[in-house]
Fold this sequence. Notes:
2 copies of one chain form a homodimer.
Chain A: E1 20-24, E2 31-32, E3 38-39, E4 42-49, E5 59-63, E6 90-91, E7 96-97, E8 102-106, E9 121-122, E10 127-128, H1 138-151, E11 159-163, H2 165-176, E12 183-187, H3 195-210, H4 226-240, H5 243-249, H6 269-284, H7 287-299, H8 302-307, H9 311-314, E13 321-327, H10 335-347, E14 352-357, H11 371-387
Parallel strand pairs in A: 5-8, 5-11, 6-7, 11-12, 12-13, 13-14
Antiparallel strand pairs in A: 1-4, 2-3, 4-8, 9-10
Helix pairs in contact in A: 1-2, 3-4, 3-7, 4-6
Amino acid sequence: MSEYIEHDARGISVGLVEKKTYTFAEPPHEMQLESGARLGPITLAYETYGELNPLKNNAVLVLHALTGDSHAAGYYADSDQKPGWWDIMIGPGKGIDTEKFFVICSNIIGSCMGSTGPCTINPRTVEPYGLDYPVVTIGDMVTAQKALIDHLGIEKLMCVVGGSIGGMQVLEWCARYPQVVVSAIPLASTTRHSALAIAFNEVARQAIMADPNWNKGNYHKDAKPETGLAVARMIGHITYLSDEAMRLKFGRRLQDKSDFSFNFDADFQVESYLRYQGKKFVERFDANSFLYITKAADYYDFEQLHGGGSAVKAFSKTRAKFLVISFTSDWLYPTYQSREIVKALKKNGLDVSFCEIEADWGHDAFLLPNERLSAMIRGFLERVYHEC
Amino acid sequence: MSEYIEHDARGISVGLVEKKTYTFAEPPHEMQLESGARLGPITLAYETYGELNPLKNNAVLVLHALTGDSHAAGYYADSDQKPGWWDIMIGPGKGIDTEKFFVICSNIIGSCMGSTGPCTINPRTVEPYGLDYPVVTIGDMVTAQKALIDHLGIEKLMCVVGGSIGGMQVLEWCARYPQVVVSAIPLASTTRHSALAIAFNEVARQAIMADPNWNKGNYHKDAKPETGLAVARMIGHITYLSDEAMRLKFGRRLQDKSDFSFNFDADFQVESYLRYQGKKFVERFDANSFLYITKAADYYDFEQLHGGGSAVKAFSKTRAKFLVISFTSDWLYPTYQSREIVKALKKNGLDVSFCEIEADWGHDAFLLPNERLSAMIRGFLERVYHEC
Lengths: 388, 388
C-alpha cells in the first residue's frame, strides 16, 4: 500500500496489490451445497486493500458481478497496468476509502478467476471438473465467502456491497448471517430474476451449448467453444447497455466506411463493438463458468429462500442499515425491482436510504465513474462507521 | 371466397385461399437493386382476398414482417387449418374488411416463403444462390411489390399497411410512389433501426454464422445451421415480448417440476418456451433469409434515403392520409420512434391520426387480437374509402 500510482483523472489508487488464495473444505470435510451435492477442497482467490483496525470493525466486503474477479482495485506488478474493475470506487479518499476501511474482494466459486470452478482440476479425476462440477448457488458462493471472512478473523462486516449478482450476494449475506452484517449496499440489483433476465441468460447458455466445441463441457484438451461464448457475451453486452446508451455511444454510425458493404461484414460501429467485446471476452473467461454463474443467478430467489415467498419476511432477521441504489436506464434490473427491496426493508422498520441515479449507461452504470454514486457510498459508509 | 370457416371467437374467415406467383425481371431485364447489383428472374408469391371493384380504388396492400409470408388470411385446403398470420385482422367484417376491400399480400424478396431469395435456385449455377444472392434492401422489396401491383392492373393503393419491417415498407411506398399511395398505416414501426435494434440483429446473425453447419451460406446439400438459427430466433423472441409480457406469461414458473434440476436442462417455463420457439422456427425458415432480411432492416434509413437526414423532407412528396400506431410495451420500436414519424407528417400538414395502444405484449402486440386496434383500422379505412 506504500506505493501509489497516479491513475489519470480518477485520483490515486491503492497501488500495487497481490492476489492471495485460501483453501478449505478439504475432504472429508467438503462443503455441503444447496443442491445436496458436496464440494471440496475449495480455493478462493481474494485481495485486500487498506488495513483492518484493532477493533476489527472497519471491514468492507465487495462482491463482484458475473464475470468479475477478486481484483477490484489497484495494479498487479506484472500486468499492463489496467487497474482492478472497481478502482474508481475503492482507494484512498474514494467512495470506499482504503485509508479508513479494510476492503476484501474474493472471486466467487464457479468462476474461473482463481476460485474453484468447472475449469479447476477435479482431484478425483485429475482432469478439469467440466460438467462434473456441481451447480452452485448464490447461497453457496456466500457460504464460501463466510469461510474466508472467518479465516481472516473478522466477526462483523461493517458493510457488504455489490452490484448486479454481487447485489444478490449482498442480500444473501443479510439473510444468512444477520449477526455479521452491519450495513449493506445492493447496487443495480434484484431479489430474483425476472422472466426477461432468465430469457437472456438462457439464450446465452444455448449459444454456448450450440457450439460443437463445447462438447458437453469437455473442451479443455481441444478447441474451446469460443464462437458460442462470444455470442453469449454479445447478448450480455446488449443487456448491460440501454437504448439511450447505445444511441449516444454508437447511433447508426458506420465503421470506417462511408457506405454500406452490402455483405455481412460489420457495417455499423455497434456491430464492430459487439464483435470486439465477444472476441476479447473469450480470451479471459471460461464457457462453463458462464453457464454455472448465470444458472446460479437465475435460480436465486431471495423471497422464496428466506421468506416463503415474502420479501418482508425474508428481511425480518437482518438489523443492517441499507443503501439501495438503482439506475434510471437499467433495464436488466429496473428500478421497480430495487423499490421492492426498499419497500420490504421499510416494512421491517429498517434504516434504509434509496436513490435512483439518473444515468444513461444502463445496467453497467454502477461500474462507471459517477461522482454522485461515489459521494453517496462515501457518506453512507462514514455514517455507518461512526454509528457502529 | 365462397366457403367460410368458423374460426373460434374471432369470427368468420376469408375461407380457403391459394398461393399464387408472379415472375418478372427475366434476363436480360433484371431488376436494378439499390446496391448496384442486378437480380432476375424474380418470382413473388402472393395471395389476394376480396374483390377488386370496377373503379379499382379499394386495393389494400398488406406488408409482412421479418419471418412472415404471403399467407396473411384464410386457410389452405391441404394444411392443418392454421389460418394466415393476420387472419384476426383480414376477413369479412374484420379490421380490413374483405367484403369491401381487395387485399393483397406478397412475400418479400430475400425471404424463403415462395419469393426469390437465397434458397432459390440461381439460374446461372443451377444451385441455390446462398451468399451469391445479392443484399437486397427495403427499397428493393418495395420495387418488386410495385411490379406485382402493376401486373394486377392497380394504379392506386387505397392503403398500404404493415407492422415492424412491414411498416418500413409502408414508409418506403409513401416516399417512392407518392402518386400511388392514398393512405398508409405503419404499425409498431420506425423510420430506421436504433443501435439497440441493430445490436440484437447482429448478435442473431453472429449466432447463425457461428454455426459450423452454416458453411458460409452453402448448406443446402448438408446439415443446416439449425442450432445457430434456433439461437437467433430465441434472441428475436425476447425482443418481441416485453418485461411485463414475460412476467405475465411465465414469471418464474417452473417447467413440470417442483424443484430445480441443478443441471442445464430447462428449469423455467420461459426457457422451455424459447427452446421450443427456436426448434419450431428452424422447420419453417431459412438461415440465409434471416441474414438477408435483418440486414435489409438494419440498413433502412428513411430519413437518409429520402430526406438527406430529415424525416420532414422525406415525407414532403406524399399526400397520403396516415394512421400511425405504436404499443406501450414495444421496446424494439418504442413509441417515441412512432411519435417522430407523426411529428414529421404534421410538419408537412398531412392528415395524420396517431394512437399509442396500451398493450402488455411488447412488439408482438400488433399481431395479437385487439379489438381497439381492429376498430381503429376499420374506422380509418372506411373514412379513407369514402373520401377517395
